[in-house]
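It is worth pausing here to work through a concrete case rather than discussing structure prediction in the abstract. The textbook approach is simple: state the sequence, then state the predicted structure, then interpret. We follow exactly that order.
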Amino acid sequence: MYFIMLPEKSRNYETISVEEVLRELNTNANTGLSDAEVNERAKRYGYNEVPEKKEHPAKKFAKKFWGFTAWMLEAAMIVCIILGLTIDPARLVDAYIIAALLVVNALIGFIHEEHAARAVELLKQRLQVMARVLRNGVWQALPARFLVPGDIIRIRAGDIVPADAKIITSEEVEVDQSALTGESMPVIKRKGDVMYSGSILRRGEATAVVVRTGLNTYFGKTVQLVQTARPKLHMEEIISKVVSALLIMVSILVIVMFPLTYFYLHSLMFLADYVLPLAIMLIVFAVPVALPAMFTVTMAVGAQEMARKGALITKLSAVEDSASMTVLCADKTGTLTYNRLTVTHVVPMKGYSENEVLLYGALASQEANQDPIDLAFIRAAKERKLLINDFEVKEFKPFDPSTRRTEALVVDRNNGGRIFRVTKGAVRTLAEDLCRIKLGEDVESIMNSFAASGYRTLGVAKSEDGDHWEMVGLVALYDIPREDTPKLIQELRNLGVRVKMLTGDAKPIAREIAKIIGLGENVMSGKELKELLEKEPQKAAKLAEEADVFAEIYPEDKYFIVKSLQASRQIVGMTGDGVNDSPALKQAEVGIAVSNATDVAKAAASVVLTVEGLSGIVELVRIGRSTFQRIITWILNKVVKTFEIAVFVTLAFIISALFWHNPIYAVSALDVTLFLFLIDFVTISLSTDNAKGSPTPEKWDVPKLVKLGVGLGIFTVAEMFGLLFLALDYFHIGNVHVLHTYYFTAIMYMGVLTPFIVRERGPFWVSRPGKWLTIASVIDMVVVAFIALTGLPGPWGHLLTPITWQEFAAVALYCLFVNFAINDRAKLMLGRLGISR
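Step two, the predicted structure:
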């Protein structure tokens, strides 16, 4: 029995021989560890992960009271406290309500951020780095966190190295350690070298033994695919600009209020006791108090909806970008087809049989890699009962996009240990680069015939000495297009997203597949695009935009395709699965890693699909647009309400002073404070509204949104003056406190009803509002009705004086009528003038 050493970080496995490491770790390179050994080591070493340092919840909650919005509310609260202690004790109530507003928003934001954090943890679990592990003599895929020292693992190009592991086979691999060491150039690793956890295998593949896990790894870094850092989104920048404009507008109106008030009333006490608190509350009102909570909930809801439909969001910007996507570049294999290749025809060359073509092709394949082409050859050889096991593969070079072939060094056990090499890959590459022959017309004719049927043709070649190669034969493979692909392509077209197919196949094959799945037949090769990019980049961008299919492309060509399309101002979605796809996935606005993508592709992408085909992408676009529309509703709602209240308060004062010589402040600071508090719940509920996505790709048109908001705001200001006429000339309200309650009811009802108007491009009844928006609105209206009819008691008398039920009914019915009968029609009229959401 061997003594198992604890694989401490200080243990120098880099200098110990492979045989000694296997002996120390008591592991067998051919069978791996047993379940009993794994359980024992898991108890000793723990999970293969580094515990994440998490911020204390109390500190996270305290941070909600720090920031521009919080500072504005806190400043307003301090001013109200000072005024309450020195001039008017009623101002203390304003301070209490502002404090409650601060706490409620902090609580809502904190609760939803905790939900979002849990969603990220769940996402991390669903997108764990997987490892190919040999246990009990069987290769299996397991989450990397379950690895223990002594495990035998297989790592391929595109994999993130899941733990510190020593290479035990003779393969040479290229490892990218830049994320760990900062070195920009990949490092060559051979048998006996240690690959460090978190590095990326760029080329080749190798079998290795795990020597260190978790905290004991050399760099002590957990490998993960989900990005937890959240950069500022373009959507947030747009909202900030709109809010800044509103803040400037309100500030100008507030500045005008002070000299005008003093000019007519000559009372510094009135300025301090009444105008100052109101001015502060109007400025606070222009600040998006509920924005952080609303934004967090909106994005979380969108991401959760997408996850349920098979699209996991790893970068939050993808929620917004998917709504704006105009072009989708989709890989043929696995996305538009089933990625289950079958051998349809075998054409042997002179001196060889069909069985020999399949045998040598199968020997140039490896089952452990689960590559669809390799599996097709192996499956065909087994179906013909070819004796693959009579041969031993001593060396295997997996498919390399730069050479476009696989290669194996084979020993014939039944023929005196004869050694030879076999390869399979692109026919022209094998013929011209290896065999140094020109393809005959008969071979070209066969390939063209296969291409016309949508078949992909591969060549098989053999060499006895490694220098002189000869063609063995041709094999036709067919990857059946998915049944739902034509339908889903049409759905994306209906959404204004143009689909372009990307494939390594030759032009004739690509054209035939495109015809079957309902794409156009304008085919461009990767070589043509690259040549044009060097000579005429503008023409290249134009032709890339017009192309339906990109054929004969290498993975690295995808990057140039994305750049060319972006030069034509397209918002590009790009699917990918391999290590060489990562530059294109990062460059595209919506990088989409397909369900079977490598770790590197998943880490580079902003979306990871959990379903095959295009269905997840269609849902990604739809949900992204719905989320976008919720934000648009919030912006419009904010513009209309801010314009309505700030402009009405200022104009009512000026007009009443000029024409009636009796300056009126129809809305008090308490009215605005209560409004901010109660409307908060309606605002946040917009994040879950049943928003209908646009039929075309979304794009920001802020001037148009502001025009629409101001246009509707002008109508609501005029309607507020209609209420003032009712109050003074019909109900003869002479008590300013009653007038404040009257207008508190009005601004609340208008504020609650406005979202129901602005949430739709067409008439308000076209779609049903969200459940929580409806519930929050009804509750708010009931609460306001109760306050209006009974008043709001306080320690120094009524803070809000009750109004009669006739006055309340008039305000409520008036608000309902003008919103749904006038403002909705005004919105449609503005839409016909080209001013719409």
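Step three, interpretation. The longest strand covers residues 469-481. The mean pLDDT is 85.
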